[in-house]
Structure formats: structure tokens, C-alpha cells
Design goal:
homodimer, seven-stranded parallel sheet, three-stranded mixed sheet, globular
Chain lengths: ~400, ~400
């Protein structure tokens, strides 16, 4: 791989998904040759769950035809289940000889991964095998391919107890037999909060091992919660629109709040809302992927881990922002997660900033844009799908609205 | 589960294997009710590889009939592939309602796990799903079951760089935002040396998560390299004999040396032999399992991790001991592993010692016993299977004998 080359051949695994689709379009617009691979499992899960994207996303082939019309660029598509069809994945890699593989192809909802024994097992088997197959196939191909993986801030656990979360590696001191203190740098001790997040912790170990044994070039991006839905490319034509999940399993917190406000549903906060989370706008997420493509680690470097987030916020503060903006009420429901009611979170994200990321932070304009999307497609809403019904243990109750909200700090 | 109860109902997953079989017999002899579950994959791998146990092990049903004749105790057997047949595993657990499940049911050879892409993928998928299925099934059963898992010293990596390897958890100091140093206790940073060892690192994270989220009682035993083959129970009748692997994939180092000496093959040392490893005799391994059954962690405790090893030795020192004992020559072959030529290893094992383990350390009597077994069954040897042919990367050469041995320190 010539790292100085301007245009690269890039396979995007999971290219039909919420992050994969706008990333594929951006990279194609920039002149890279993009090949999408997807098993379309996110669409299947929608069918099985009776849910749907709030926005009317088009079938893959129509999406790709529209993109070619709009941009003049072709994106090819292979329908492959990388967790199940290793030989087809390997053939695609050997034939395409990509410079870069971006790996989004995992089941990515924490509540979905906690819903039942079947879905816990699906999530673990699917995600671990998907990642391991990509690694095995790169080794077997003998090609020098830069693998970029979408991880999650969730591998760090909930909260940081006064320690600024570094980018993947932690400096520690340990005592030797002789009583000396020696410095070491280790993978940040993982503490995932759901079966889904756990699979991303397992991925980290797979990357660590294959990087060490086979000298693979790997970038692992620990992403925060994505909000927003449009990028310049997905806005170029109605047929290119990105998916927008509002259901209790796949809808992420800020988008859910904005959508709830748009359709007149109370803004449902889990627990006290004292949980602090890391966020990033979809436009920055796509920009980060672009930066990761442009800055591969050197051959022989350890796994490059970057925190892909731009700000941290308490959930209750987001709810209040949305409430102020829209006039909607806030309702508290029990927290389905097993975590402390309140936490703090400090995160280092200097690597992307140093590479030129200028963060799109939370602002009313972009929040209202999401609200307008939600209003525009409100007719597509299934209100029954809005509440989160998954719980982390059998003892917990799904989050029904417990009491009307009275918030003096609104 | 009444922890004070003397006799327990125990499911042994992988009960037909090298550690599982003598453990099942010991627990049965002690009066526990033992149910073995196995998919017989180790026998299948032998068939596929053209290898065989040096000792003439009997089919499972004959083993169990012989045990009933000898001991008067019945061990029941279910032929279940726990990585593939979740529903049958769950049914067995719900019907048997065991107090304890001992989990040996994983592919356990490092060289086998490195042989090809197919076997890397088999090892990861089989081992991760096997362990995850057991955890899911325990949660789904709603029963309070003590899970005991056979892990490996290999999760710690090769060597310890002056730090005494603790029992699973490491005390560290980290700096906070304010510059204070705070103490934390973390899972020892994992650094597995093969795909097989990596799966045991993945297992650790699964245990950590399910212990945290579902309060499962879990004991994880990080075992050293087992040597020897007989226990009092497997010696009680020829039909109860334990397996003895001497091939390049499944044969473990000391047993291989003794067997090589017995059949007149040079003792093949990988690399310089400067690698230090942790060892345990099979009788102590079985005794440790017995102690783990007797000392479950309390409900709500974190995962109990114990180092199941009794001594550390340099490989070259073992080779010299065997050479002195038998008069055999030593031959050096290239090391198929990716590791430093020389290392040191200090390991804490006080938990088992405190529970009453009196280690069987390396001694000539027991080593000669293994040598005699090897001599007795030498007629069953396939000499072509003795060398290790697996390598950790494509660039490495399989370990052919490179030069005759001249060792002034013999």
C-alpha cells in the first residue's frame, strides 16, 4: 500500500448501514474507488422487529443508481454475510485488492443484544466471527491492507472516575518482585456495559493479537453516540437519504429525544438522566473515517486507537435542551441498563483534532434540522416502537413512564 | 446451591478429554454425581489428522461401563456439541439442575489453532461460542450454578518482565485529571501468544461481563502445561486409561520429551530452549479441580481467578533432565512460535496452596513413569507425527532438526 497515494480502493463492510452509507458516499465523492459489502441484516432486523427507519431509505440498488446519477461515480456492491461466508469474503478481497477495508459490519444495538438469549448469542457469534474473518482473510490474502474498524466508547465502561480516558492505551505503574515501580503502557482495561459493547472489547483483543502476530495495520475507532442523520452527500437526492432509527432498540438517545419531541411524545429519560455520554455528529463521524483513511499507521506500528467523539453531555442536559427548543415534556422511566445513576466522563480526543477535525458540537440549528426531519416523516411513526422494552437482567422492569415530569431547572 | 453440602451434582463439559476424564473419575469417586457432556471432537481431530493417543483409550461407553464395574458409581453421558447445540445444552442444564458446571470443552492446542485459516476460525468460533453458550444457558436456567472454567497461563503472555504474575488481577496506579495517583485493581493485561490462547483471553472478558451483569459465580483456572498421564482412578483398570498425546500439535512439551526419549527420537527443543513455562502434574490438576469444587466464590463475588501451576522451568532444563535420565540426545529446531528466545516467569499460586494443594513437583520417579508408559505403547507410535509442523506466520519454517546437539552443560 502506498500511503502517499491520493486515491485508494476501499471496501466498506456494512456499507448499507447508518454510518456505512454516508461514509461510502463521502469516500466515493472524494474520488476513492468504493466497494460496499453488506448482508443487509439491519433491514432484516427491521422486518423481524416490525420497526422501520423513520426516513424512507431506498433499496441498495436504487441507492447506488441514484448515486451514480448524482455524482457520476460508481459504487459496486457485494451481498455477502462476512460472518457466515468466509470464502466469498476472501475471494472479494483477493479480487479487489483493496488498500483499505473499513469494518462497520456488526450488530450495533446494546438493547437489542440484551433482549433475549437468542439475540445475545447472535450478537456475540456474528460480531466476533465477522471481525475474525476479516482478519483471517487479510492474512490469507497476503495483501498489505489498512483495516479501519468502528469500535465504541462503550469498551471503556460507563464513567471514568476522575481519570481522563486516553486513546486506547493507559500508562500504569506496577511493582516488580524487587519492589521497584516500573512503567507500562497497556490496553485500557475494558469494562463493557452490554453484550454488544462486550463484543467490541473482544474485537480489541483480536486486533491486538493479529497486529502483534501478523503485523497487520489496524485503526480502531472508539466512537461516541452518533446524532444527526444528513451529510452533504445523503442530502443530494431524496433517494440517497440516510436511515434514522427511533425505536427503543436502535434509536440513539439524542435522535430519539428530538424525534419524540417532533411527534408529541414525552422525552423519555432513563433513570435520573445523570449518565454522562460521549457524542459526535454524523458529519464528524464521516469526516473522522476520511481522516483515518488518509492517516494509516506505519507497518509495524501497534493498533492505532482513536476516540471518535467531540463532546460529553449528561443525558438530562440533552433532554432539557430539547425540551427548551421544542416545548416538549420530559418523562422519567426506569433505566434498563445496569449502571450507576450518575457518572462523569472525561475523554481525550486529541488525535483527530490534530489531524484536522473541527468538531460540529451540539447546536440548536443542527438539532432543529433533526427535529424537522422527524416532523417531515412523522406520518411513518409507529408509536408502539418508541419505548425501550429491553432490560439488562430479568429482575429489571422495562421503562414505562413512571411519573409526569416536573423540572425546576428547565 | 448449598455450599456446605458434601456431595454435589456436577456437569463436566469436555469430560472425555485429557483433563476432563481423570477429573470426572475423581469427582465420581469422591461421591459427587457426575454427568459428562462432550462432542468427542478430540477423537474426531485425531481421525482427521491421522494421529492417535499413544495410550489405547477406549470408547466413551466402554470407559463408563468399566468405571461402574470398578467403582460402583455411574457417570451419565450426553453427546452434545455445546458450541452448536445450545438448546440441548440448556435442556440438559434445566433437567439436571447441577450445582457445578466444569467447562473443559474447548479446542486446546496452540499449534493446531495456528495451522491454517480454517483452524484459526474453527478455534475462535468453537471456543467463544462454547463459553458464551454455557453462560447464556446458566442465566436462562435461572439456577445458581458455580461455573469452573479451565483457562491457561498463556493469557498472561510469554514471560513477566520482573513482575510476579498475580492470580488474575493486577494492582496498578493511574494518574487522575488532577494529577493524583489512584490505586486500581484490573484484570491482568492479556497478551496471548496464539489464536488458541487468545480465545481464553476472550473467555476472560465473557466471564467478567456475565459476573458483573448477572452475578454468576465463576472460577477461572489459569493452568500451566500439564505433564504425566495417570491418576489413581485412571490406573484402576486398563480400560480407564487416560489419553497421551505425543504429536506435534497436541503433545505438550515435557510429555513429548519423555516420549521421544522412550522411542529413540532426539529430544526436540524449539529455539534455544530459553523459554520459561509453568507446569503442573495431571494429578495436581485433578486435585485443583476438586479444590475449586469445594471452594466456590460467594454469590456477588467477582470472578475467582487462580493460577493452576506448581513450578516454572526453562524448556532447555527439562530437556537436559530427560536427556540425563534416558541418555537421549537433544536436537534444536527452529521455534514455530513468535516470542523472545529467552524469558523469565514468576507466578503467584498461593490460593491453591492455601486451600491444601501439596504440589507434585518434577521428580525422576514420575518422569520415569511417563517414560515407561511411552515405552510400553511405543509400538503404537507414528514417527511422522512427532515433529511440530505448525508455524505462527507464513514466513516461519516448520521445525526440522537443524544440527546435532552439543551441550556442555548436560
Amino acid at each position: 500500500m502506498t500511503t502517499g497515494k491520493n486515491y485508494k480502493k476501499i471496501i466498506v463492510l456494512g456499507g448499507d448501514g447508518f454510518c456505512g452509507w454516508p461514509t461510502s458516499l463521502r469516500l466515493s465523492r472524494l474520488g476513492h474507488e468504493v466497494i460496499m459489502i453488506d448482508n443487509l441484516s439491519r433491514r432484516r432486523i427491521d422486518e423481524e422487529s416490525g420497526t422501520n427507519s423513520l426516513t424512507p431509505i431506498q433499496p441498495v440498488d436504487m441507492r447506488l443508481r441514484a448515486w451514480e446519477e448524482v455524482s457520476g461515480n460508481q459504487i459496486r456492491f457485494h451481498h455477502i454475510d462476512i460472518a457466515e461466508e468466509y470464502d466469498r469474503l476472501l475471494s472479494a478481497i483477493c479480487e479487489e485488492k483493496p488498500d483499505v477495508i473499513i469494518h462497520f459490519a456488526e450488530q450495533r444495538s446494546a438493547p437489542y443484544s440484551m433482549k433475549s438469549s437468542v439475540l445475545k448469542r447472535y450478537t456475540v457469534s456474528n460480531n466476533v466471527n465477522a471481525t475474525h474473518h476479516v482478519l483471517c482473510a487479510i492474512v490469507e490474502s497476503g495483501l498489505d491492507i489498512h483495516l479501519i474498524h468502528l469500535g465504541t466508547m462503550g469498551v471503556y465502561g460507563y464513567g471514568s472516575e476522575g481519570v481522563r480516558i486516553p486513546e486506547g492505551y493507559l500508562d500504569i505503574e506496577v511493582k516488580t518482585d524487587k519492589g521497584d515501580r516500573v512503567h507500562q503502557q497497556i490496553l485500557y482495561p475494558t469494562n463493557p456495559g452490554s453484550v454488544y459493547h462486550m463484543t467490541k472489547s473482544l474485537d480489541q483483543l483480536l486486533f491486538h493479537y493479529y497486529n502483534k502476530n501478523d503485523r497487520l495495520r489496524i485503526t480502531d475507532l472508539h466512537q461516541g453516540i452518533v446524532w444527526g442523520t444528513h451529510t452533504p452527500e445523503t442530502q443530494a437526492d431524496e433517494r440517497l437519504i440516510n436511515r434514522f432509527d427511533y425505536d427503543g432498540d436502535y434509536g440513539t438517545v439524542l435522535n430519539r429525544f428530538l424525534m419524540q419531541a417532533a411527534v408529541g411524545h414525552p422525552i423519555t429519560v432513563h433513570g435520573t438522566g445523570g449518565q454522562t455520554r460521549a457524542f459526535i455528529h454524523i458529519q464528524d463521524s464521516v469526516r473522522c473515517l476520511q481522516l483515518a483513511v488518509d492517516h494509516p499507521p506505519e507497518l509495524g506500528d501497534r493498533v492505532l486507537i482513536m476516540n471518535q467523539m467531540t463532546e460529553t453531555r449528561r443525558v438530562i442536559d440533552l433532554a432539557r435542551m430539547v425540551s427548551r427548543l421544542t416545548g416538549s415534556e420530559i418523562a422519567f422511566v426506569s433505566n434498563p441498563r445496569k449502571e450507576a445513576a450518575e457518572n462523569e466522563l472525561h475523554v481525550d480526543n486529541h488525535k483527530f483534532i490534530a489531524k484536522g477535525l473541527v468538531p460540529v458540537t451540539l447546536n440548536e440549528g443542527l438539532m432543529m434540522e433533526v427535529n424537522e426531519i422527524a416532523q417531515k416523516y412523522a406520518y411513518r411513526t409507529d408509536y408502539l416502537k418508541i419505548p425501550a422494552r429491553s432490560t439488562w437482567t430479568k429482575e429489571q422492569q422495562p421503562g414505562e413512564i413512571q411519573r409526569p415530569y416536573v423540572d425546576n431547572f428547565k
